[in-house]
Amino acid sequence: MVIQASLVQWLKLITFACTLLAVHIVYMGDLPKGEFSAVTLHNNMLEQVIGSGASELLLHSYRKSFNGFAAKLTNEEAEKLADMEGVVSVFQSQKKELHTVRSWDFVGFFEHSKRTVLESDIIVAVVDTGIWPESESFDDKEFGPPPKKWKGSCQKSSNFTCNNKIIGARYYRAKGDYPLEDLQSPRDSVGHGSHTASIAAGAVVSKASLYGFRAGTVRGGVPSARIAVYKICWYDGCYDEDILAAFDDAIADGVDIISLSVGGFFASEYFSDSIAIGAFHSMKNGILTSNSAGNDGPYYASVVNISPWSLSVGASTIDKKFQTMVKLGNGKVFKGTSINTFDLKGKFYPLIWGADAPKYSSSESRVCLPGSLNETLVKGKIVLCDYLDFMEGPLQAGAVGALIRDDGFKDFAYTFMLPASVLGLTDGSDILHYINTTKKAEAAILRSTEEKDELAPYVASFSSRGPNILSLDILKPDITAPGVDILAAWSEATTMTGVINDKRIVPYNIISGTSMSCPHATAVAAYVKSFHPTWSPSAIKSALMTTAWPMSPKTNTDLEFAYGSGLINPSSAIDPGLVYDAGEIDYIKFLCGQGYSSKQLRLVTGDNKTGCTKATNGSALDLNYPTFALVVSLSGDDTYFSRDFHRTVTNVGSPVSTYNAIVNAPKELDIKVKPNVLSFKSIGEKKSFVVTVAVKVGLPTVSGTLVWDDGVHKVRSPVVAF
């Protein structure tokens, strides 16, 4: 009886649910050709299902851009409408939340996070390709005049004007041979500089997107901060002489943070590197330089900006990724990667392999190089290509779209000049087999969609890895930040892909790189600076590193060589508890230990008293850095290898506080801290300690953490042995 009664109750509930009215959308596709009365048509459809009174249930008719209506329906009525001629789909209306650009929200830094009025006095120097001043991201609405400390200028140009957001702008081309494609002004004709500037300090802009992708509110990390622009990069690259000139000006202009998403092809000696030199003098003047780690991952020792006085930033993913589906005429569906803004409406087109359409040589046409494809054979078709580029070749030949089979990583999305999807070698080979075994092969490339990335965050494949080839004892990169598929401002003097034949001009674009992660870290550094204007560059850097979110070794098998201290955590960085501070004298001791001469360093410091003596010849192990890197030296029959690290922390948290050392490490890694308790009685008080790290010889990279914990703050440092 109990079971029968329960069954009856369930049947009643199901029947009741079916009779409940809920708002449904009846989507009917494009507008009908010619004149028609949408309301009459939609009412007639409802009356066929509901009967009289249908007009009272019709909530809205869509009739300007597409055809359909919203109405209150039961599930049964919705099913009947779905079967009617002319109906594409019927679905129940769902409650949706407002969407913002995910990179800042993803790291817990929301639009209404705690702010200080001093943020509007922070000046972020963006050393890049210039800026597009008309972008909404750089609107100076509600901004007052520049801070009094500002000593810079807006370089005169016929097509550029500064405002109270972009308070200064300069451009550099010492050789004077300006590329024809570029603009001889601070104006950005590449897009890169506008993108990085808006990530760091762009204003809050609603309803931003790239053709509907990433739609929502876009903003910089410090939207109230000012921007000073230093254009050092052009179509043909960025030159050392111009980089140094920009540093020279930026320091004198009174900026607070320098953001530089630029790097060489490989790491150079510290004083043979314009960026390291500029960053050193910035540090000396109280300015932190934030650098991109480089885009040469996942290869080891590929990080290029490695000076210990600057912040090196790797790139990680956020929780959204793009996919572009490909359908074949035989019904098979493949999931590719790209940001395909084109909508072919699911239409199928003839499919051909590039090698089967040579203009001169199949070895060239198979990779779809520009001018390699036979226009007669390719026009109106989708081409399968064996090489990844902008797909200018298929576009020139009149192709409708392109499929690219590529053995590279698929953790970030490319944009192309025509409908395209990047597939793995296995899927690409399956498609080639279909072409070779089918008389009339055809395919459809769908518009991209976004899906949740359950594994995020993880370090992007392209993000350059450590170790630091110049100073193995200094862990690099320092930290990671979002750098994959980031929506930000773009220059309207270029195209979406940056290729001339692309016709799409966009105010916001989605691109990836450590160039994008760098300004995220820049913004957090500026945010910390707004709360602690007297902190040194190394104190700010330490705050970012010791409060970073830990990242999973399961999805980041390169460990700290990929993510450094972890993922930026802006809200915690303003209150780190303790900082590992260092100044010019500490870096000079480090440089003495690296083999630089007294003569060199006297010139660097401008102080004739500077010299490398036994007392000042510092080991990299003892530079007061927030991380610990042990380079295992194989010698004799030793089972374990160990070294001591000397560190000093400064209390910036509670005046009276006691921190306990908590060590987390695998059994192969022994970490001892002496003393293991630090007690403070005032702000600014310093305490020193020694960390002894021992590791079993012959193991691969192994890592743990040292955390100083007072019950409120967790000051976390990675410990890596390799």
Distance between the termini: 70 Å
Total count of strands: 34
Helix content: 10-25%
Oligomeric composition of the shown chains: single chain
Q: What percentage of amino acids are in beta strands?
A: 25-35%
Q: What structural class do the secondary elements suggest?
A: alpha/beta
**Radius of gyration, taken over Cα atoms and rounded to an integer in Å:** 30 Å
Structural notes for this entry:
Belongs to the peptidase S8 family. Keywords: Hydrolase, Protease, Serine protease, Signal. The structure is a single chain. The chain has 722 residues and is α/β, with parallel strands linked by helices. The chain has four domains: 75 residues, Alpha-Beta Plaits; 274 residues, 3-Layer(aba) Sandwich (Rossmann fold); 133 residues, 3-Layer(bba) Sandwich (Glucose Oxidase, domain 1); 103 residues, Immunoglobulin-like. 22% of the residues lie in helices and 25% in strands. It has 17 helices and 34 strands. Strands 15, 16, 17, 18, 19, 20, 21 and 22 form an eight-stranded mixed β-sheet that branches. Strands 6-9-5-12-13-14-23 form a seven-stranded parallel β-sheet, sandwiched between helices. Strands 27-34-33-29-31 form a five-stranded mixed β-sheet, with no helix packed on it. Helix 5 runs parallel beside helix 12 and helix 12 packs across helix 13. The longest helix is centred in the first third of the chain and has 18 residues. It is globular. The N terminus is likely disordered.
Summarize the structure.
With 722 residues, the protein is α/β, with parallel strands linked by helices. The protein contains 17 helices and 34 strands. The protein is globular.
